[in-house]
Fold:
Amino acid sequence: MLPLVRKRSRPGEAHGQGSHEVRFTKVTIYLVERRMGRSRRRILTNLARSKGFYVEDILSGTVTHIVAEGNPAMELWLWLRAQGLPLPARLEVLDISWFTESMQAGEPVPVETRHRIQDSSQQLGTVLTSRVSQYACQRRTTLDNRNKIFTDAFEVLVEHLEFSDSKGPCLAFKRAASVLKSLPSTLRHLGDADGLPCLGEHCRDVLEEIFECGKCSRVEDLMCNEKFRTMKLFTSVFGVGPKTAEKWYHRGLRTLQEVVSQPNVHLNKMQRAGLLYYRDISRGISRAEADAVGRIIAETMHCISPSATMTLTGGFRRGKAFGHDVDYILSTPESGAEEALLLRVIDRLRYQGILLYCDYQESTFDKERIPCRRFEAMDHFPKCFLILKLDAMTVEDGGLQNNPEDQRGWRAVRVDLVAPPADRYAYTLLGWTGSTQFERDLRRFARLERGMLLDNHALYDRNKSILLPAKTEEDIFAHLGLEYIEPWQRNA
Ligand code: CTP
Ligand code: MN
Ligand code: MN
Structure:
């Protein structure tokens, strides 16, 4: 059957359908300009019209086929909803591939699933109606954070409260951010937060403001607040916590230059190293750099003990592309040899001339005193916090994440090493993999839901008064009656 050829007089005509013949009356296309760009949209519009397609310039109720290019689904649907038009179920929201194929065919090709840009918030609806757990260890949180606009705001508030030592409200914002990070898509309106745990009144106020104005005024104020900015700067130095930062601020200090040049500012060894290598260690460490550090330590370690092994942990084990440090667990097959191993590794690094800083903490581990009842207590294993000199030659392909102006062929990197006894390995691996919020909730879940005590050393069943042995992380999840969560799903 020949397509019906006619000229149409429609509101769109005024916007440039001009004298082009409309050959396909059942299809009215609207091309989304965002991400496509104005000029490409104009070119595509002209092309379609020349082939007899009807293209609307304005998004209206007569549009049947919306075509977008390069828009993430979630973003596109947020934008579409914001246009305030009814979105009938028949409306096709399509990827540019449908348009391109139709242009090639010279007629609208039938819409297939692969052409459609799916509304991912329907997925969100499913999640919101099924209950989201209040515990991060019962949620799967990847690095794909769909609610960054909200979690960034919460994290600024967290930082501010950490500076003023307000633990309660701080934790509330941390938990709220963590819940939002686990969602498969972006919150569309305040109502979406209704079924979610950990989103109290203060958190909802923040969300509401962001929905209304696109930003949170408290956060905006903080970002230009001199004290907040100075505290952020000072606490970004290795070895400087909120107390020291506050002290410096009250002395009238505002820059790191001022801190270093003031003769009466006392700096401890850690802070001196933190300031000396500030430019390097305030830059993220890439995965390639982390691997290079791993190779150096592995070689060093194997010279001492061929049977010793090491495992990358911390943020890199969770799949992060960048970290503030590199965390490795060293282990020996026989319990008891780990402390000597770590000490000898440190000695060799020093001998190689690459140990720029070392804070060694000897073992205070006492089998009789596990598990520790205190929350978030540091573990008692031998460990060290290092700054190593990483040579560019040792880093594969990517090279160093250096300041471009620092052409010295090396950079300083922060490295943490911990060496637990072999039978404590699984607990240490679980504890050092993080995230901090994930660990916090694992312990809280163990205590409140299972009557168990968990830390980096052990899992203790208070009801049965026994320590539960574990060889792997899976064993620990199983003891807790939790579904296993992969490291890359622990970015809570
Ligand atoms: N950790 C610990 N005991 C320590 C030091 C760290 O249990 N003495 C744990 C933390 O609780 C965290 C993990 O080790 O879960 C990693 O800590 P850290 O390196 O500070 O954070 P990352 O998650 O690795 O983040 P980043 O990439 O910024 O380093
Ligand atoms: Mn780390
Ligand atoms: Mn660390």
Observations:
- The two ends are 58 Å apart (CA to CA).
